[in-house]
Amino acid sequence: MQGSAHPYEFPIDVVHEDIDFMGHVNNASYLKWVQEAVISHWRGLAPPDAVAQHLWVALKHEITYRRPAFLDDDVVATVLLEKVHGARAFYETVIKRGSEVLAEVKSSWCCVDAETLRPARLAQSVIDTFFVKTGE
């Protein structure tokens, strides 16, 4: 256990292209949103040198859909980094409209070196920036 993660909120614009033939957000849009939210989380919290040296590749997404979203809904994805193990990071992302949970997503990602594109472990000091320090 690496402590409590700093929650990261990522606002989502529901646009016409997200809407499917049934009049609500297409399932594929949730995947796009999660990918955008996790990458934004990394870029927003990691030190700039770590962002420049590392990229992320999605390994797995497991999405549980709870309620539909519609055009122009105010939607927010809250990203939590659950843990980092080796070159892998495990995330939970909850997508909400107000207090309503629309979808819950578990995903795993592989960190890769930006030059070699080979799996890369993050320094513990970088990992620590994503978690609440004891006593905070």
Briefly, what is this?
By secondary structure, the chain is of the alpha+beta class. It has helices at 27-45, 48-53, 124-128, and strands at 8-13, 54-65, 74-85, 88-97, 100-113. Strands 1-3-4-5-2 form a five-stranded antiparallel sheet.
Main sheet, how many strands, which sense, barrel?
5 strands, antiparallel
- Describe the strand arrangement of the main beta sheet, using strand numbers: 1-3-4-5-2
Radius of gyration: 16 Å
Span between termini: 17 Å
Helix content: 10-25%
Class by SSE composition:
alpha+beta
* CATH architect. name: Roll
CATH class: Alpha Beta
CATH superfamily: Hotdog Thioesterase
The secondary-structure element order is EHHEEEEH
Q: What coarse outline follows from CA principal-axis ratios?
A: elongated
Could you name the CATH topology? Thiol Ester Dehydrase, Chain A
Q: Helix count?
A: 3
- Strand segment tally: 5
Tell me the number of structural domains.
Answer: 1
Mean pLDDT: 94
Low-confidence spans: pLDDT under 50, at least 5 residues?
Answer: none
Strand proportion, as a percent range, falls in: 35-45%
